[in-house]
Amino acid sequence: MFDWLKTKRRERALASHSIPDDEWTSALHELPFLDHYDDTALARLRELTTPFLVEKNIVTGAEDGAHALEVTPHMRVLIAVQACLLILGRGDTVMAAMRDFEGWDNVVVHPGDFPRSYDYEDEAGVVHQLDEPIAGESWYNGPVLLSWPAVEAGYDETGMALVIHEFAHKIDMLDGEVDGLPPLAGAARKVFAEAQQAAYDDFCRRVDADEDTAIDPYAAEHIDEFFAVSCEVFFAEPELLREEYPAYYEQLQSWFRVDPIAGRLIAG
Q: Cβ-count burial of 176 within 10 angstroms (0-12 exposed, 13-18 middle, 19+ buried)?
């Protein structure tokens, strides 16, 4: 009964909301890695983006002061489109796909990088608190935090698809663990993990050897960051990931049920 009522509420909300054509076209224009996607894939992406915009609050992290930021409709659509790429091929229905983003409500957009505080203990046993500027962060059962300049710059300019990166962390967290793995079980989990670990070990070896890697060396920080960065590359520069780590690329393609090179959905 609860699921039925929830579905009906969603349907009523969606019936009264739609993304204006100019806003949709403008967002796609800023994401050139979607230029070759076929009509079926883009139609489903738009279907997913609509409930995301209805159900998630995309709000400013700076309401006052010299660096106050107003979140415009265009900003909201641009963020939502990229977030929904990660569920584009998921679920038999739009509502089923949206379950991957349940359990939290807010996307907070900051006017620039924002501080993250953490404690560390030095060799003498003294605990220090450090603040470091970061461009994005995802909280378990909590908000996604984004720096708008990093989002706006885009992958072609920075080599970083920040929204995809942070929402990949949300996918990672679905099973309650931050381990770089989507919620798979049994043999499927084993195959995915083995392909990912082999790719990660090789990538870390190359970074440790000071090789100039085509993939952001930040991916060597930890297996969960490798997953998030590889999701960026999977969607924004898929030929690169397939060339570098074909077995891992195939596992990502199987999970997301999207062929980002052909720009189409994969029947599940």
A: exposed
